[in-house]
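A further point concerns the way the authors explain their paired sequence and structure data. The central task, working out the structure tokens from the amino acid sequence alone, is never made concrete. I therefore recommend that a typical entry be quoted early in the introduction. An entry of this sort, consisting of the sequence and the corresponding backbone structure tokens, reads as follows:
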Amino acid sequence: MMYQASNEYNFHIIKQGRFRFFLERLFVNTRISAIGGEASGSSVRCASRGAGFQEKQRSEMGYRLEMEESVMRTAAKLMVECLVTEGVKYIFGIPGEENLELIQAIADEPRLHFVVVRHEQGAAFMADVYGRLTGKAGVCLATLGPGATNLVTGVADANLDGAPLVAITGQVSSDQMHLTSHQNLDLAKIFEPITKRTKLVMCPDTVNEIVRLAFKYAEGGAGRMGAAHIDLPVDIAKMQVSGLEMPLMKDVVCQQEAEESQIQMAAESIRTARKPLIFVGNNAVHYASSQVITEFAEKLHIPVVNTMMAKGIVSADNRYSMMTIGIPQRDYVNWLFEEADLVICIGYDLMELKPSKWNAERNHRIMHISNWQADISKYYQCEVQVNGEIDSSLARLGKLLEAKEEPTWAFAIKERFEESIEEAVHSDAFPMKPQRIVADIRKALSDPEDILISDVGAHKMWIGRLYGCYKPETCIISNGFASMGIGVPGAVAAKLVYPERRVLVATGDGGFMMNSQELETAVRLGVNFVVVIFHDSEYGLIKWKEEEQYGRAAFVDFTNPDFVALAEAMHCKGVRVNSAAELGEAIRKGFEEKVPVIIDTPVDYSANEELTAELRSL
């Protein structure tokens, strides 16, 4: 059934004059008596074994060899055909000497758009965020040696965050791998611990299989989504591949249904619980379970807590949506866990938040509902596991259960939390309080579809705690690998996926400087987004942790460039906020520009210590 791999690709085959060869692959025992590159429907008949059969057989064998030779192409071109069949639109990367054969093949394929970046880490982060927003593997490309190692941080981020990504690297010639060679590293070993699968191409005829396997593993066809890696030696890329080798058909992934015994046990546990609490993680976002989870919570009157990466899984304006868990300190949200007598974990991934953060005493009754079995942890011992397609499992459970009393205990805790933040979110103090900056960002991003990309730092704690989302995947936070530098390249990817949406990057000055070079990429692509820099000239989150643990901070201070001048030098717009009242308007005007707008926003992180003191008194 190879011909079903892609209708668009099949048309491409016909257009290139391969139709006759294509039919021969489908009907081995027939021959086509038409002459030239077109087939005549009336001239397809079975070959007889009459007089002269051997001569005819020799003639047809020569024809098949001639056709095979006419569609011979390099392994690099076959790889490009495979990428098109996989639905790839963008490849993020940098050309290098050992990937030039693939670069040239990409240049000849109009359906692929190569995005030249300024650092390979930026390419990996773009592919990372592209994968998160689309559910399809983002693709990044680098050469060997330093180009490949520059990909590592972004690839690891995608793998731990569960974002589908395929990284392709060039490599030295296969006859040089056993030698000490210029820029030669064992890339398969480097990428092995940070991907779900890594393969070195050693035979050109295996390119189609290796590409299909990479996308299968990246896109969740073999479990959790994540990153995959393909290493393509420069000589293999140039080798010729038979016309018989074509892109492989994509798998249809069928989600397993949970066993009925699991459903019945789960229903009984929920039925007997007095204060159940739903805890939703990022895997529920990957499987688009927002509507079913919302309906489940509303029907049964169960409050919902989410991880940082599952923000918006239940809309922030829904009365059963409580808070986000994720900051290091014991927060109001932990109070909800302490009150609950059953924690119903849906799509929860231990990679994002270790269970000791909410089950330190190991005394919670836990139910695990996800597409696969729970990971192992002494802090995550589940009395019931419902392993199967999430939506189906919740729908089946919902039919067996009746609504509980309204969770007034949870509403009371949420009310306490909202009262605690009321003053700070309206503060006119300058430098600005982080609470006010987050509130102004949420107000400016007034459309529920608007996207916030949060870099990593002290500001991420405040966004995680305070920024309400109305739809999933509208607040992109790296919280598995939690890498600084994702903000600006992530915004580039978000605008390519959703050019009609407004995108804002919230970043510290530390994280911004790690990949600010990708502003040039954004300008070149003609995309606009707003960058709000929480400017404190410190690694603020590390300072916060140091002062909590050691009573002092060490080696966290640095100086910054003039961010407004930097923006202008990068052909962007730069704005410096001089009062709290200016930020909201600066953001709104920023979205009217045609280039990225950088807003330098001084922040007063004394709020960090104030929060620590407040939470200790809970």
Summary: Residues 53-70 form the longest helix (18 residues). Residues 98 and 170 are 5 Å apart (CA to CA).
